[in-house]
Amino acid sequence: MPRAGLTAERVVAAAADLADEIGFEKVTVSALARHFGVKDASLYSHVRSLQDLRTRVALLAGGEMIDRIAAAVAGRSGKDSLAAFAAAYRGYALEHPGRYAATQIQVDQALVADSPVLRRTAEITYGMLRAYGLEEPDLTDAVRLLRSSFHGYCALESTGAFGAPRDVQASWDRAIDALHVLLQNWPRETRTSDA
């Protein structure tokens, strides 16, 4: 019987908070049970496994992150949209390190197809990039470039790895300028005929 007051939503939200406090990789069912003052078994009526818990945290965090990005890019296009998207991404990653780490895990492909969060993320990201006139396969390539650029920058910044005296925000702004120029001048993939 589920413990009174515990719900799947409350368990997942607590796991996300704990991830921000101690790191996503350190979140376990046992750590979460200690947080609630219950035995591990009490949580298994709300989540099936540690993997299920982590996936749910990833989806929760992904939803929070894309909500922030969507609000930032609303009514913007081109460079303004790219800069707003990037700032919202970076802000979330730095403010919620555990949640952000959860968004980087590989999620079961069956869940990807059914997830409104992941569909909305794709729609907003691809929508922002379509303003640059990109179509497949260039859209996917551009998404991968932006994600790796943003993620790499945030990962280095969060560990204090930028040691040069140059202001980190100034470097970020220049990186966004450079990405904008690259997207405007994207090398389109040429298609060859099999004939």
From TrEMBL:
Q: Which domain of life is it from?
A: Bacteria
Q: Which residues cross the membrane?
A: none
Record's keyword annotation contains Zinc-finger: no
The record's annotation in InterPro entries points to: Homeodomain-like_sf, HTH-type_TetR-like_transc_reg, HTH_TetR, MT1864/Rv1816-like_C, Tet_transcr_reg_TetR-rel_C_sf
User: Which Pfam families does UniProt cross-reference here?
Assistant: TetR_C_33, TetR_N
Establish whether keyword DNA-binding is in the entry. Answer: yes
Q: Which residues form the HTH tetR-type domain?
A: 5-65
**DNA-binding region per Swiss-Prot/TrEMBL record:** 28-47
Record key words, sorted: DNA-binding, Transcription, Transcription regulation
Q: Name it.
A: TetR-like C-terminal domain-containing protein
